[in-house]
Amino acid sequence: MDINPGICYQRTLTDYAGIASLFSKLNKKKFIWACSHGIQCRNNVVTEMLKDYKGNSIKQFILQMKAKLSNKLYLFAKKHADEIIVQTQQQQNLIRKNIGLKSIIIPNGHFVPIKIRKSKLTTIL
Predict the structure, then answer these.
(1) Cβ burial, residue 55 (10 Å; 0-12/13-18/19+)
(2) Residue 113 lies in a domain
(3) How far apart are CA 38 and CA 36, in angstroms?
(4) Domain for residue 116, yes or no?
(5) Which ranges constitute the DSSP H helices of the chain?
């Protein structure tokens, strides 16, 4: 089965984002990456999360190698995205500061109500 999307969209940052970005680049398709968390607006996200790991040295080595590959895929996805969508001004500032890229703010489509109305309970017999 052939896949021929007009646009590839990836929300969150996983290794698949880098692969989707590469697919888009090779097939001359648009790639949009959407940030789902502020931590994704930094370089070396996975390596930073592992810096305090105190486990087995062999496991630590393997995790660090995987982290380096993941970081490269993440950065590739961000740098080769035709558009980057963020949720907040803070995320936009972090993307610009840490990676030097422009982004578009599209807030999440749901708001937390200030006060939730309680309805009267009705008893049905």
Answers:
(1) exposed
(2) no
(3) 7
(4) no
(5) 15-26, 45-50, 57-79, 89-99
> What letter would DSSP give residue 44?
S
Per-residue pLDDT tens digits for 21-48:
999 999 999 999 999 888 888 888 777 7
Instruction: Classify 33 as helix, strand or coil.
Output: strand
Contact 18, 76 (CB under 8 A): yes
3-class DSSP assignment, residue 8: strand
The residue type of 27 is N
Cβ–Cβ under 8 Å, residues 48 and 108: no
Instruction: Give the residue numbers spanning the domain of 20.
Output: 7-105
Higher pLDDT, 51 or 67: 67
**Do the domain assignments include residue 122?**
no
Q: Which residues contact 115 (CB under 8 A, 6 or more apart)?
A: none
Is residue 63 assigned to a domain? yes
Residues β-bridged to residue 10: 33
Looking up tokens 């309970």 gives 121
